[in-house]
Design goal:
Number of strands: 0
Strand content: under 5%
CATH architecture of the largest domain: Orthogonal Bundle
CATH topology of the largest domain: Farnesyl Diphosphate Synthase
Distance between the termini: 37 Å
CATH class of the largest domain: Mainly Alpha
Mean pLDDT: 91
Shape: globular
């Protein structure tokens, strides 16, 4: 399966942001996104054993460095992308390391621990993405880090119910205790004022990351970061939607519809004209 097909079938918000790019960069970011999608799908596979998943991720690590027998169809395109943008293997290996955490860790004691995971699966993706988008000010790297944390913490809020079905809890254990809300109550989908307060706390942190990203975006790179800013708009709107609905994440899977997404894309494109 090629990169374009993987991206189209994913129906991700990430793919939406690519419309603002020229043809060449759109092809390149689609290749990178397909890589991210494939390794994430390995960790989430319902048919592979944990051992098989770990081996598949090790194989991908090897394929970042050199051609291998029976390697994934996408591997050659990813290596060419790395050469084109001078991406160090460690940049993509960081993303693989984040996915590997899902094989071995299903609970996080504190947000400091969770932040490592968020950095690897989201901020590291942003750091590669901005190399493809192109930037002039090194400060743009901190923008990518902060925005990645904002997007992933929003994902965690949205997917609380979905993650429980896979026995994964990304809400830090010490924060559950802080609000007097137990893991047993989370597993039983207890929805009350304590849960809402816990989720408001999570949302406030996500908003701080969104604000932090916006504050450090260099003025000279605003144009090249339009795809990232589209993502910021869409995810911030999603976060607002979840909060206004009372964080009913046990019973709902929140998404913006196509029209809502299109409005945010258009607003961002018009903003810099």
């Amino acid at each position: 399966m090629n990169a374009k097909t993987i991206t189209r079938q994913s129906k991700s918000n990430l793919a939406l942001a690519f419309v603002s790019l020229g043809k060449e960069k759109r092809v390149d970011i689609t290749t990178f996104y397909a890589f991210c999608r494939l390794i994430d799908d390995i960790a989430d596979s319902p048919v592979l054993s944990r051992r098989e998943k770990a081996q598949a991720l090790r194989d991908w690590r090897g394929s970042l460095l050199t051609c291998r027998a029976a390697e994934p169809e996408l591997a050659l395109a990813v290596r060419r992308l790395m050469d084109k943008y001078q991406l160090a293997p460690a940049m993509l290996e960081e993303i693989i390391a984040g996915v590997e955490m899902d094989l071995n860790i299903s609970r996080y004691a504190t947000f400091d621990e969770l932040r490592i995971y968020c950095y690897r699966v989201a901020s590291a993706v942003g750091l590669v993405s901005i190399e493809i988008f192109g930037y002039r000010n090194p400060g743009c790297r901190e923008y990518a880090v902060q925005l990645g944390l904002a997007l992933q913490t929003t994902n965690i809020i949205r997917d609380v119910g979905k993650d429980l079905r896979s026995d994964r809890i990304y809400l830090p254990q010490d924060e559950l205790a802080r609000f007097g809300y137990s893991e047993a109550e989370l597993n039983s989908r207890t929805y009350d004022t304590r849960f809402v307060a816990l989720m408001e706390f999570q949302a406030a942190r996500a908003r701080r990351f969104f604000d932090g990203a916006r504050a450090v975006l260099p003025r000279e790179d605003q144009q090249s970061m339009v795809p990232a800013e589209i993502m910021a708009r869409v995810y911030r709107a999603l976060l607002q939607q979840i909060g206004q609905d009372g964080f009913r994440v046990f019973e709902k899977e929140y998404r913006l519809n196509r029209l809502q997404k299109a409005r945010h894309v258009a607003a961002q494109l018009l903003r810099l004209r």
